[in-house]
Amino acid sequence: MLATTMTRGFTFQPRKHLMMMMSRRSLMITLGSRQQEREPAKLDSLPPEERGRYKVATIPNAICAARIAATPLIGYLVVQHHFTPAFALFTIAGATDLLDGWIARNVPGQKSLLGSVLDPVADKLLISTMFITMTHAGLIPLPLTTIVILRDVCLIAGGFYKRYQVMNPPYSLNRFFNPQVSSMQVVPTMMSKINTVLQLSLVALSLASPVFEFVPAANDAIFALGCATAVTTVYSGLQYASGKAIKKL
Fold it and tell me: What is the residue-wise DSSP string for 73-108?
């Protein structure tokens, strides 16, 4: 009887100790996996195809930055009624928008998550500046500019809120603007692309009107283009508000 009790005592303790060790080990593994979810891997440890997504120094990003830097100058020229140089610079800015998109799609290693966000930001900043300054110069009606600006403000605020929603804790400014943390990508809808083309076309034609002295019939066509721009602006804004243009990776 004593031997049985001792045997049971000696066999029970190691089993209990083993179970405790296994529980601690599983807890450490769980905590480690959660920590890996919170803290992204270093770029050097990622494969080349993954590392390219998180690049900052790319040619398209540099072109976007140059377009952002040129935006205040173009707006200033419009306010001062220097329409010819403003039209020339705006045309160049539109060409660079096409160029950086082509490079990102066709040149390996030039497509990045930052670029998917920076490119529409540069476009919206340029378009918003042009609408405001051209309304000041009497080239675009105020109601249309109001629609465009309100839509862009709502998109920016909604984008920050969506970023906060998909982001894993802990929260900080450094992690919020780190593309590796809870990566998300902006994917414009077809209606948004159409709206962007219409807005750019409207700005270009309205800015070209005083430069080339369009006839009244051409100005009527510009007015019809403005109506189409207003409709697509509202529709695409509703699509962005529904979250269709932003996805978590």
Answer: HHHHHHHTT-HHHHHHHHHHHHHHHHHHHHHHHHST
Alpha-carbon gap, residue 48 to 231, rounded angstroms: 43
Q: Which two tokens stand for residue 177?
A: 């603007």
- Residue 143 corresponds to which tokens in the numbers above? 């109601």
Per the confidence metrics, is the pTM higher than 0.85? no
The 8-class DSSP code of residue 184 comes to E
Instruction: Give dist(CA 150, CA 128) in Å, integer.
Output: 10
SS3 138: coil
Q: Of how many residues is the chain composed?
A: 249
User: 59-79 vs 113-136: helix axis angle to the nearest 10?
Assistant: 10
Q: What is the pLDDT of residues 175-228, one digit of tens each?
A: 777 766 766 666 778 888 899 899 999 999 999 999 998 988 898 999 999 999
* Count of other CB atoms within 10 angstroms of residue 241: 13
Helix or strand (DSSP H, E) at 248: strand 246-248
For 182: left if phi > 0, alpha if psi spans -120 to 50, otherwise beta; the answer is: left
Q: In the chain, where are the structural domains located?
A: 49-186
